[in-house]
Design brief:
The chain has helices at about 10-20, 30-35, 70-80, 95-100, 115-125, 165; strands at about 55-60, 65, 85-90, 105-110, 130-135, 150-160, 160, 170-180, 185-195, 195-205, 220. It is α/β, with parallel strands linked by helices. Strands 5-4-3-6-8-9-10 form a seven-stranded mixed sheet. Strands 1-2 form a two-stranded antiparallel sheet. InterPro entries: PCMT, SAM-dependent_MTases_sf.
């Protein structure tokens, strides 16, 4: 069987023009970023030819790389600013981290799989992304010593958000994830205002379940 050779640059352009833009993403800077980051570098070798398809890509341990449109919608919802400090929870092999790092000042990526941590850091270094680092740790615990964060980004579905993650938000900080809200899967943004938090269920999306979240001291919707 002859393996199909993919022109990744053409595929990257088509991903934005045929998936991201028709899906409603309008952030021009984000779209430029998506056209420049080689998604194929952040997926397992055997799935590189599927890197730009509108589907989640399997990783080991039941994990998945979030499909391009849903990731783009969540990143746009987070409204990343150039000086933002971002916590990227469950980054897998680092694609979301690369996207966020192209928009933010600094990204701390948290990953509970040590093999993913090593692989993601290697790829980020190879791609000359010097404002992001991947650290190993419990997804549900966050990284309080490196906060507070302007944005906490969870690239998957969670049942509930641990309160300790909300406490790691800076004033006017935003937490973005996918969760069940009023019996439907929604992309939500939680904003911090002093000691209070507001929730906006802004997107009608689904995402793979993000493992590792405990059910103690959680913020329910």
């Amino acid at each position: 069987m002859i393996e199909q050779i993919i022109d990744f640059e053409v595929a990257r352009e088509a991903m934005v023009e045929c998936q991201v833009l028709p899906g409603g993403v309008r952030d021009t800077k984000l779209c430029r970023v998506l056209k420049n980051i080689p998604r194929e570098a952040y997926v397992p070798e055997k799935y590189k030819n599927l890197a730009y398809m509108d589907k989640n890509i399997p990783l080991s341990g039941g994990r998945e790389v979030l499909n391009p449109l849903v990731l783009s919608m969540l990143v746009e919802l987070a409204d990343i600013q150039p000086d933002d400090l971002v916590l990227d929870i469950g980054c897998g092999l680092g694609y979301s981290t690369a996207v966020l790092a192209s928009l933010a000042g600094t990204v701390v990526a948290l990953e509970n799989d040590p093999a993913f941590v090593e692989s993601a850091n290697t790829v980020l270094q190879n791609q000359n992304i010097d404002n992001a680092v991947v650290v190993e740790g419990d997804h549900s615990a966050g990284q309080p010593k490196q906060g507070p964060f302007n944005v906490v980004f969870i690239g998957g579905m969670v049942d509930e958000v641990p309160h300790c993650l909300l406490e790691q938000l800076d004033e006017n900080g935003r937490l973005v994830c996918v969760s069940t809200y009023e019996n439907a899967s929604r992309g939500i943004i939680i904003s911090r205002h002093g000691d209070s938090f507001s929730v906006n269920a802004a997107l009608d999306v689904t995402a793979p379940k993000m493992l590792g979240f405990e059910k103690e001291e959680q913020f329910s919707f």
